[in-house]
């Protein structure tokens, strides 16, 4: 684990915190080129009501606009959760050189856990993958978020039940 990987994953975690503050699933991403963060993003699916507002896609889009090209051939993407199939596709299509992620996603991770689209040689581009950077911190922010979400939903359900008891419904 390089100090550079830790530094940039901490920046991705800062983005994940921003998502959590907005009640979004706390996933953050940063794109790095030549030792400089060129794009930062976090999940905005709920805010934008968009299925494609994933942190990785938003960071890739920002970087492409900033650089004036869709080719991110020498860039490294740091993301707190292993990319899904959609994000892995965008990583391949934008030619991101390297992907570094924190927590694995056994239900949908496509950078080596569930499957590995990023290394599939049938595509014309593959990305180098480094897994598990600050995995515990990246996993904990997600676990805490979902624990709190379940608690809130349970409270809401209880409140609705109590309200219907009062009204006799």
TrEMBL record:
The active site is at residue 56. InterPro entries: APOBEC/CMP_deaminase_Zn-bd (IPR016192), CMP_dCMP_dom (IPR002125), Cytidine_deaminase-like (IPR016193), MafB19-deam (IPR058535), tRNA_aden_deaminase (IPR028883). Binds 1 zinc ion per subunit. One of its GO terms (biological process) is tRNA wobble adenosine to inosine editing. Its cofactor is Zn(2+). Its EC number is 3.5.4.33. PROSITE patterns: CYT_DCMP_DEAMINASES_1, CYT_DCMP_DEAMINASES_2. The keyword Zinc-finger does not apply. CDD domains: nucleoside_deaminase. GO terms for molecular function: tRNA-specific adenosine-34 deaminase activity; zinc ion binding. It catalyses: adenosine(34) in tRNA + H2O + H(+) = inosine(34) in tRNA + NH4(+). Catalyzes the deamination of adenosine to inosine at the wobble position 34 of tRNA(Arg2). PANTHER family: CYTOSINE DEAMINASE FAMILY MEMBER, TRNA-SPECIFIC ADENOSINE DEAMINASE. Homodimer. This is tRNA-specific adenosine deaminase. It comes from Peribacillus faecalis. The lineage of its organism: Bacteria, Bacillati, Bacillota, Bacilli, Bacillales.
